[in-house]
Amino acid sequence: MIRDIGWRIAVSITVRLTRARIALLALLFTASAAAKEADRVVLVADSRRFTGWEAWWANLYDDSRFYFALLTILIIPGLGLLLAKLTDLLLARLGINLRSRVVSER
Amino acid sequence: MDWLHIWMPIANVPIAWPGLVILGLGVGMISGFFGMGGGWMMTPGLNILGFPMAFAVGTGVTQMAGSSLVSARRHAHFGNVDYKLGMIMILGAICGFEPGAQIVMWLERQGKVDRYVQDGYVVLLSLIAWLVFTDLSRKKSKEREALTSGRAAASVSGGIEWHKTLHKIKVPPMIEFHKAGVRCSLWLPVAVSFLTGLMAGILGIGGGVICMPALIYLIGCPTHVAVGTDLFQVTVSVLYGAASYSYKGRTELLAAIIMLTGAAIGGQIGAIATKYVRGYGIRVFFGVAVVGCAVSIVLKLIPVGNPAFRAFLDDTAAILILGLVGALALYIFLQFLRGVRQERAARAAVAAV
Question: What is the pLDDT of residue B202?
Fold first, then answer.
């Protein structure tokens, strides 16, 4: 009797898990279809308006979104760190301790 | 006044660069002070300056990847970042983000995504604001009780202390976070970060506004460590967001760089200002920021048939957000100035002795 109930529970769990997996696959398929739909909207930068690095940047945008994204996520943190270092030089002139705090919760 | 405008090579729109610097400076200060990316302030700000909405979101996220790094670095110098906790929060949030995004896809198929997400946003922000102000009011009443019973007000630990109940769950493995001064089951930060990631995935935000109060009220971090650790987590999550939006072609790097020049200074000022403000002071103004954010979303949600009135409400919401950014940035800057003056005076006094 107990074995039978255990078996039924196991079957029920397996059925539910299979359903969940099918639902998840359906979700992933829909997500990928939606992403493909979004990709059909093509944005183009008009590089004719620019010269120098701006024209190069606009061309890169049109040629390869991968390299455009890669450069963006390399430039922004790198520049952030550089600017932070420069700001440190300015803040050091304030004459305050920039390495520790004493103030507490209350 | 052409020199005040720069033509953006990707978005193909002219933008006033001083507006970008001021927006970066203001949001940078708030981000460094409260430990959140500030997307809810940045996006409407960029939209008002002239960016189409998709570019406003993408450019804002990209700029945040730099500005949150600047602020997190400063907080790390102050010892406000618990890296172990931060790494767990990042992993949990990543695992939670995707199911959240899948829920949005499901809601989209049901045709209910806009309403549910916006309602969810309002409910969540209201809950956070309630949490912050209830915590403050309970702490005040505990302090009053302590004073009447002859004890020092400083002996009162805090208002809302849900983390103490959660720390009683001793499911192994137990883990110790030294900077945060917390010892708990590993599953607690894993569960909290998964849930914050899930909410962030549903609402489409970096998660700082959820993660900061979660670290305080559920994990039990001191406010300063919550701010620093949250910024560390936000830095990683917005970098992913920046990559995603750039790949979709919705990022204007030139605008992000211009904003970053302001944010590099603002972020440092915000982080340094936390040196001079006690933890509960930060919590109160965080609550004010959250209330402002919630009100601006409610204004956008009010169903209005008249398009002119709709435009008026949208403008009011944008003005409210920018006014709030201005007021909070001014408050943080004044705290920074006051603190610097006091510290310099104290140092001069020590040197004189």
Answer: 78
